[in-house]
Write a structure and sequence with these properties.
The complex is a heterodimer of chains A (224) and B (267). Chain A is mostly helical and 224 residues long. Chain A is 84% helix and 0% strand. In chain B, α3 crosses α4 and α3 runs parallel beside α6. The chains are: A mainly alpha (224), B alpha/beta (267).
Chain lengths: 224, 267
């Protein structure tokens, strides 16, 4: 049963729910930019942009704490039921996974400047492609959240397979590269971690989509 | 008929598991229809809560189950309500016996202006349930024990029931209902006049009585319905809008009217 669109008799309850939605949207928007910026900084070796992404992570962390505080307060004071309860439970989880997406973006940004294999990196379309898809998944998940659109939520989960497949391919490529160029093992290990971070961003976007689906339907997202 | 979230109609052995079955019940006060085509099943294993806004018909429907509406001249009941498969509105039904089988606890505690002992002993006496004083003593003690009041009153059974606190009075009324060995207990907002501690004691008592009696509780307090019941029925404008497993009703109701009411978006 989706939200009827009717207002609560207690307008303060609506104001709190709106505040939570607004904060989560802001977190999502920042996380989306962080994923995109981290990949851009990596591909262009842009240290200044990388520093900005690391700073952005701290803002996302603060927002998560604020969201959590308001949700705990709302549950305690409003005793929410049905779709309100589902939305608040989902909001706790969504804010936590967005915070993790911020962490992974920061982790990618921290590796900028430690890589000398720019040629390998710029030639590696799979890693760029992974970054693009992961960024799109975050973006689509947040659009799904804002619009309460379960079709968009389902679309997010479908893309996770693409990210997983690219990760598997990259893993094989990286291990093969290290075997041929053992002197590059440390740098390639950085790339391996970056690909793993992107794969996790895909997973977290999928979790976010699942919680949006749960909020709207009261059911778990079907497996396929 | 209201949407049923998940409730089997029969027990595992295939027999009819319901203590009470109501079918197409309509209640009128003169020309005004208070209940509109309500069908519902109530079983022994689960506490059933009736919720809904004032005037929705939940108390009216509750009162049809022990024919309390018979006392209102303008009230007229149509449809079928069966207790253990027997129509309670059948002319052969002894209403006094019915009300012994289907006890009732009201919003405001209403002990008789008699001793604690006599409050409990009254019902068993008039129904001839005790052959002598010793048997009556056993019934009184057992009823007060079951109502969680024995330890608080065992040394002052001759004190007036009206001298007890509000919460104790309400448990006395529950003990009084239990004393005639009913099969069903109807509770019409039993905690609305009580403080939170006394309310918690009644709720714990309901939990302990579950399974021994078919219990139906009318409550305006949705948290209370969520706490004490396993089945919840939502009434609105005389209709049974939705009836189902309490945890489903409060986390994922199937009807917009139910959802709007329980989330505070009503009117």
């Amino acid at each position: 049963m989706t939200n009827s669109g009717n207002k609560h008799t207690l307008s303060a309850f609506d104001e709190e729910m709106d505040k939570i939605r607004s904060l989560i949207s802001e977190m999502g928007s920042r996380a989306e930019s962080a994923v995109e910026g981290a990949m851009k900084a990596l591909l262009t070796n842009d240290m200044k942009l990388a520093k900005k992404i690391r700073h952005e992570d701290k803002i996302i962390d603060k927002l998560e704490k604020e969201v959590e505080r308001i949700i705990v307060q709302t549950i305690a004071l409003r005793a929410p039921m049905a779709d309100d309860l589902r939305e608040l439970i989902a909001a706790i989880k969504i804010s936590a996974v967005i915070e993790r997406i911020g962490d992974y973006s920061k982790n990618i940004a921290k590796r900028v400047g430690h890589l000398k294999t720019e040629d390998f990196l710029s030639d590696n379309n799979a890693l760029q492609r992974m970054g693009e898809i992961a960024g799109e998944m975050v973006s689509t998940a947040m659009e799904s959240y804002a619009k309460r659109d379960i079709d968009l939520a389902i679309a997010v989960t479908r893309r996770d397979d693409d990210v997983d497949q690219l990760y598997k391919e990259l893993f094989v490529d990286f291990v093969g590269f290290i075997a041929k160029h053992p002197e590059a093992a440390q740098e390639v290990a950085h790339l391996l971690f970056i690909s793993k971070n992107l794969e996790r961003i895909g997973d977290h976007s999928t979790t976010c989509a699942g919680m949006i689906y749960f909020t709207e339907t009261g059911e778990n997202l079907p497996d396929d | 008929m209201a949407e049923q979230n998940s409730q089997s109609d029969t027990s595992d052995d295939g027999t009819d598991a319901h203590k009470i079955t109501a079918r197409n019940v309509n209640v009128f006060y003169d020309d005004k229809q208070a209940i509109d085509d309500v069908s519902i099943d109530v079983d022994m294993e689960n506490v059933t809560a009736f919720i809904g806004p004032s005037g929705c018909g939940k108390s009216t429907f509750l009162r049809t189950i022990n024919r309390m509406n018979d006392t209102i001249p303008s009230a007229r009941v149509e449809g079928e309500i069966k207790l253990d498969g027997k129509d309670i509105y059948d002319p052969s039904m002894d209403v006094v016996q019915l009300r012994a089988r289907v006890g009732m606890v009201f919003q405001k505690p209403n002990p008789f202006p008699k001793s604690i002992y006599d409050n409990i002993a009254y019902g068993p006496n008039i129904h001839g349930l005790a052959a002598n004083k010793a048997e009556l003593d056993i019934i009184v003690e057992r009823s007060l024990q079951r109502a969680g009041l024995w330890n608080e009153v065992k040394d002052r059974l001759s004190d007036s029931g009206t001298a007890l606190s509000g919460g104790q009075q309400q448990r006395l009324c529950i003990a009084r209902a239990i004393a005639v060995d009913p099969e069903v207990i109807l509770m019409d907002e039993p905690c609305s006049a009580l403080d939170p501690i006394a309310t918690a004691k009644i709720e714990e008592l309901i939990h302990e009585l579950r399974g021994k009696y078919a219990i139906i509780i009318v409550t305006h307090n949705m948290q209370q319905a969520a706490r004490v019941s396993q089945r919840t029925a939502f009434f609105h404008l005389g209709n049974l809008v939705e009836f189902g497993v309490t945890s489903d009703i409060f986390t994922n109701p199937q009807k917009t009217r139910t959802q709007d009411y329980i989330t505070g978006r009503y009117g």
